[in-house]
Fold this sequence. Notes:
Layout: H1 2-23, E1 27-33, E2 42-50, E3 61-65, E4 68-74, E5 80-87, E6 99-100, H2 112-118, E7 132-136, E8 142-146, E9 150-153, E10 163-168, E11 174-176, E12 179-182, E13 187-196, E14 206-212, E15 218-224, E16 227-230, E17 233-236, E18 241-247, E19 253-262, E20 271-272, E21 278-279, H3 280-286, E22 290-299, E23 308-313
Antiparallel strand pairs: 1-4, 2-3, 2-5, 5-6, 7-8, 9-12, 10-11, 10-13, 13-14, 15-18, 16-17, 18-21, 19-20, 19-22, 22-23
Amino acid sequence: MKKQRFLSVLFSFYFIFTFQLLYGNEQTLQFSLSSESKDEKIIQYEIELWKEKSMEAEFPLKLLAKPGKVILKVPNGYQYFRISGIAERNIRGYWSSLYSISEFGKPKPVSKQSILETKPPKNVLPENTGVLVPISDQNGNLKPYLTTKKITIKDQNQLYNTVYTYRLNGSSWIESKTLDVEFLSDGFQVLEYGSVNILGNREERKRLEFFTDYTPPTTRYMIEPGGILIKKDFFTHPDAKINLIAEDSGSGVKTIYYQTECDGKNLSIREELPESGLTFNNLKQICDSSLKFIFYSVDQVGNEEKPKHVKIEFLRASR
């Protein structure tokens, strides 16, 4: 009887001592767990506590919590934790990042250098990504232009059941399982977007400001110093120049091209128009009879104008 009572007291002492050893210097974290996914309902969350960041030389302390407010009491010695959601039909989500217990909930210090980096000076844009290209306007200001008609944004982590929300130019928010936004008109665009995964982890919303341009340039020709119009025919001197003038109201003209076709055949390769223009004597060296002069322009984002042409007849001098 005395031996049994001694063992009972010894067991109680051991249990109390062990409990105090583990929880004597415990930390308490308070946070809320919820999911905004419409596809799967989270019924509970699994929390793992870890002593080391490597997670290789130990087994974690596992806890379960219901959605809503959570008061997590962390035993002494545990430095990190992570969370995973469990949905109906025992569908388990991905584990979250490993959070530091001592730093959890504290605002991250922002250095003076990082403030300068996150607020770049005006007209300083990221490097050319191929989708958004910085283009200088007439005043020398850099503006980002979209080079495609559609922007596709994907979750880099490729988590299961990611839901995207976005809106364009301050319109109503749209929720979708994919984020493909098509642009049909020219002008200034503001795209705001974000995402949330099955665990309820919400991405901080991002904002893109850029310009779209889907209208090609307009090109016309001018003959200098001019000539004489007789009925429907225009006569000029062989030394006169033919210049091409292109205008574009969006991203701006990049290149003016021309081609020639002699007697309805032998179409030349396209060439850039020289800054000095071309004289009719230059063109006569290509074809001294019936010449079709074809011209068009391309703007900075690749919009190509439909080719135009003018027919040129070289008359032989009468004796």
